[in-house]
Design brief:
By secondary structure, the protein is α+β, with helices and mostly antiparallel strands. The protein is built from 6 helices and 16 strands. Strands 6, 7, 8, 9, 10, 11, 12, 13, 14, 15 and 16 form an 11-stranded mixed β-sheet that branches. The protein has a 3-stranded antiparallel β-sheet with strand order 1-2-3. A hairpin with a 6-residue loop joins strand 6 and strand 7. 24% of the residues are buried.
Length: 362
């Protein structure tokens, strides 16, 4: 299977895409090239060298089961020639032997070629800094994270998404009540008024992202939102250079269910926020309609960092555009209980002090 590796015309080192400059950059000599100019240089080089693109690489089936073969792809690094193995969804990776970035456009299946890509704005050094800064002033994390937090692995990933755009209509009826207490003579009267409230509205959703990779957890990817789609670029293979990327392997229909859930939740929260001034509000009828919509594939940037503690692996994910960070490090239960008891004890002391002042002036 053919791969693409972009080389620096000046020094021959591998080029990666700089999301801030929106150009191909060489980390060896510091040169930068516009994507179109680089394409022209590559075409000229191909013509001068009579470059042959007709090589047909065949995957070896030695030692693989039929199921593994169906999910495994072999290709040759266009830089050093080493044979590399990936799964069927990988569209960009790095050569394990020479480190050159390789792009495999043939891995895209019909309908999964992304329409747009949000390039990385967060550098590797900045991602490492965010990882280290996370542990500062975190009073409720377990003690084993207080020092020697080493990175086990860091990966620069483009995660596939399906982006949904639609206009949704909602009509929700609520049962609400207000409670008022007052004195009348020797009696305290509690008055409860019941209300039937209706709210209806229309909301436009633009580029609602739904994780399209089976490898990543929806809760993790949704914790990294939002992304700013104004920075999105039309897809060209060069943008993936220097990162790992996968194509969508979750069907649109399956992702649509997730999109419908998110749309419904957003509509419910939006309309509920307009029902104010009641002791309790309960929805008794909810109608949400999405008559038409569009969906297209895209790639969004994410740094994935793992660290090991006590033989367990913990994951950090960083939004490669906005620096938003999420992780699966648990809260220390003993510390949380101690913190709560400290707050409770402090509150009790304040209440006792106030009561003593009141008693002094009685």
């Amino acid at each position: 299977m053919a791969t693409i590796t972009y080389k620096c015309p000046s020094c021959g080192s591998s080029l990666t895409f700089d999301g801030n400059a929106k150009e191909m950059a060489c980390s060896s000599c510091g040169s930068q090239f516009e994507v179109e100019a680089l394409k022209q240089a590559i075409e000229i080089e191909k013509e001068s060298e009579n470059f042959n693109e007709g090589t047909n690489w065949q995957a070896k089936d030695e030692g693989f089961s039929d199921e593994e073969l169906n999910r495994t792809r072999t290709f040759n690094c266009s830089s050093c020639g080493a044979e590399l193995i990936t799964d069927e969804t990988t569209v960009a990776t790095e050569c394990a032997f020479c480190g050159s970035p390789s792009i495999i456009p043939a891995q895209f299946t019909p309908g999964t070629r992304p329409d747009s890509v949000i390039p990385f704005k967060v550098s590797k050094d900045r991602a490492v800094e965010l990882f280290k800064n996370y542990f500062k002033n975190k009073k409720l994390i377990p003690n084993l994270f207080k020092k020697n937090n080493q990175i086990d692995e860091i990966r620069k990933l483009y995660v596939p998404y399906w982006l949904f755009s639609c206009t949704a209509d909602a009509d929700i009826t609520y049962s609400a009540k207000r409670v008022r207490s007052f004195r009348r003579g020797n009696y305290r009267i509690t008055q409860t008024r019941h209300y039937r409230i209706r709210r209806a509205g229309t909301v436009d959703f633009k580029d609602l992202p739904v994780d399209a990779s089976e490898k990543t957890d929806n809760k993790l990817t949704e914790s990294l939102e939002p992304y700013n789609t104004k920075d999105a670029l039309p897809y060209v293979p060069e943008v993936l250079s220097g990162a790992q990327a996968s194509r969508a392997d979750v069907a649109i229909e399956d992702s649509k269910k997730r999109a419908d859930e998110r749309i419904a939740r957003s509509m419910q929260n939006e309309l509920r926020s307009t029902v104010l001034g009641y002791e309790s509000v309960v929805p008794i009828s909810t109608k949400i309609n999405v008559p038409d919509g569009t969906c297209y594939p895209a790639l969004y940037p994410m740094w994935l960092i793992t660290t090991k503690k006590a033989d367990k692996t913990y994951t950090f994910a960083i939004n490669g555009q906005t620096e938003q960070l999420t992780c699966d490090i648990p809260m220390s239960v003993p510390k949380a209980i101690g913190w709560f008891l400290g707050i409770f004890a402090g509150s009790s002391a304040i209440i006792t002090f106030i009561m003593s002042l009141i008693l002094q002036f009685r």
